[in-house]
């Protein structure tokens, strides 16, 4: 086993191949299940990769180093979200008031609910600072938590769990409240489940994906501004 770990650590190719194969298998499973929310690719794909890492005894830094190329592609992929957003510019202009109200309400509830739940469970001051920005996308949530005095690693876990839970629940909740408009459903998914929710909405409907990208971006900015104000108002800064 030690020889296998040494061989895998020496090259990035096995980890890139593992990640791509796991993602393709997860997408195939998701489509075969009829897009079941519990089988979203980001959840099943991560489970496959984690299983291989555990079986091979590989630590996360080794895997992360081997998949650095994929990390570099996050930037261009994020910029590419501007394409569907541009196609929806007329409707975004017409809906700016309800979108602004939804953004303010969603961002406030996300920060307040995270702080209230963690505080009620007896979380430490450092944990509270780490979880406050958990509804923002990862590139924004991590530096916000770090500058507030939180633990970026704990924030990363909170962001991932929030995204997965949001992507699983947004469809059933939208049907339950009667939100059938793709713009409404997509904006809510991007606001609450950031990149993971946006990726799922892009697979379901182009309009929902565009508004999810809008919700993710706006909520990232709003969270960066409102989280310090929230914590300062509570006397936790």
TrEMBL record:
Do you know which Pfam families this protein is assigned to? LrgB
Q: List the record's Gene Ontology CC terms alphabetically.
A: membrane
Principal place where this protein is found?
membrane
Q: Which residue spans traverse the membrane? A: 12-31, 38-57, 69-87, 99-121, 210-236
Q: What name does UniProt use for this protein?
A: LrgB family protein
- Topology in the lipid bilayer: Multi-pass membrane protein
Give UniProt keywords alphabetically.
Membrane, Transmembrane, Transmembrane helix
Say yes or no: keyword Membrane present: yes
Q: InterPro entries, per this entry?
A: CidB/LrgB
UniProt-annotated location(s): Membrane
